[in-house]
Amino acid sequence: MNNIGDQFMSVLNSIIDFIPNLISAILFLILAWIIAVIVKNIIVKGLKAIGFDKWLEKKGVSSPDEAQRESEGLIATLGKLAYFLVFILFLPPVFDALNMQSVSDPIREMMTAVLNFIPRLFVAGVLVLLGLYLAKILGKLVTNLLKSLNASKFNSYVNFGDKSKEGIDIPNAVGWIVAVLIGLFFVVQALSVLNLEVFNTIGTAIIAYIPLVISALIILALGFIGGNLLSTVITKSTGNAFVGEIAKYLIIIVAVFMTLDQLNFAQSIVNLAFLFILGAVAIAFAISFGIGGRTFAEKQLHKFEDKVQKEDRGNQ
């Protein structure tokens, strides 16, 4: 009986000793709930107060009719997210109060990693926003500068001879390229700030590929310019626009394949396709000139035959 009584008292003492821990855990949960509700209300009411729906409508994210409903749904989602984040922050002390360090330690480590990551994420976001802003400004600056220099008059040299508005406009194209390159640079820097191996690998690959893209664009532009210039020269010198167009498109095709080769796009396939196209063009020329010159060749053969027959008669 004494053993049973001792065991009962031991269990009872354990329960009594655990009650303060349980009360502490409950108090932490209540505190977490109060703070979570306050944070949620601040976010929800704050976003509504600053006119979040108007901002969504202004940015074109939602239509005027659906802006309020979509913004309310997004605001509610953000509020719930903040609510659960606050609860997660309070989980380690709750489990510590219950002497469950095996559960609280992993959560604490995870939260420490997340909290250490948030500043880097903030800096990366600032870099991206700053980069996009600078890219937009510098892109417009380059575009306006080229327009002031009347660079659009050279548009015909980088198009297929079409001077319509649907062709490539040099100022806009160069400005867009400048903006994209600057934006990419800042995005890569933002990825490196995050200090994640995957993003670092992606950023390094992008930086290494940018020179190839620039050189490929230069090759392609030179191909278009050279093709159009050569076409103009041949057309003016020979008076045959067809030959000029053929020369232009041949140069453009060569430039396109050189561009793909520079970008390392399946080089063996690109080279093989280039050889096939050259062979097809050569065969097409041979067939077209063969069929087109058949009458001429027939006349020449008849003349040669008549000449041979006359010589034979003279010898007889």
From TrEMBL:
NCBIfam families on file: msc
Highest taxon in the source lineage: Bacteria
InterPro entries: MSC_TM_helix (IPR008910), MscS_archaea/bacteria_type (IPR045275)
Pfam families registered for this protein in UniProt: MS_channel_1st_1
GO molecular function, one term: mechanosensitive monoatomic ion channel activity
Residues passing through the membrane, by range: 18-39, 74-95, 115-135, 173-194, 206-230, 242-260, 272-293
Name of this protein: Mechanosensitive ion channel
Organism: Candidatus Salinicoccus stercoripullorum
Upper classification of the organism: Bacteria, Bacillati, Bacillota, Bacilli, Bacillales
Keywords of this entry: Membrane, Transmembrane, Transmembrane helix
UniProt entry tagged with the keyword Repeat: no
